[in-house]
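Tutorial, part two.
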Amino acid sequence: MARRRITMLLLGAALFILCAAVYWLSALYGKMRYDAAYKDYRMGISAENYALVPVSKAVPQDLLSERINFDTVNHKFILPLKHQYYDEQKSLAIIRNCTYIFDAKGVLLSKMESAEEMGQQTEFGHCVKLEDVLGAKNEAVSVVHFHKENCTLSLNPFRGLGSPNGPGRNMAWQGTAYIGLKMQKEVLKLKDGEVSARNFFSNRYERNDYELGISLYRVPAEFQKISCVSFLVRRKAYGPNELYIIRSR
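Running the prediction step on this input gives:
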């Protein structure tokens, strides 16, 4: 009887090891396959018709809303943004104002930085404000594959106790997401290694199961014959946001 139990335990352990090995090899193969087609967004994008160009990686959080303007008369983009720098000597975060102006093709015309906000361009009489088009149910963005790397699921029943914002979403995994971003001419392939996912078992999720942290600001439809430039924002959980411009090659 004891020998039978030992045999069953050994078979169970062998089956567990075999399943774990198959899962690990499958995940590794999937990552290698998608790595060949997708590119880290910080290094650009895998696309024939578009280029992703960094604008700033020092934009403070919650300061991009209503700050991307398109001049419908002069056909240029005006971005009166702020930059956040950290002074290590003073151990202090410093905010400076910076106005970017791009033409209709997304080429930088000027960049002016000033310590005072009054130094920024503030005339927007002929401007329309670009809005984030990536809503919760928008089909322009999708997660094609997710590679799990670190389990972050919290089993603490007192998580968030006493916090005014509550416990928040209990994300199960942190890993690399392979993202498809639908544009007019093609689907852009982006890879982001700092994405959290809620679903514990599957690597294919609904959009709401992810914390992608990206926004896409696009010219309104009535002006897209003038310009097809878009602005991509990667919102960070900690630290400043990153701003990129997507323009045609």
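The CA atoms of residues 84 and 95 lie 5 Å apart. In part three we will examine how such features are distributed along the chain.
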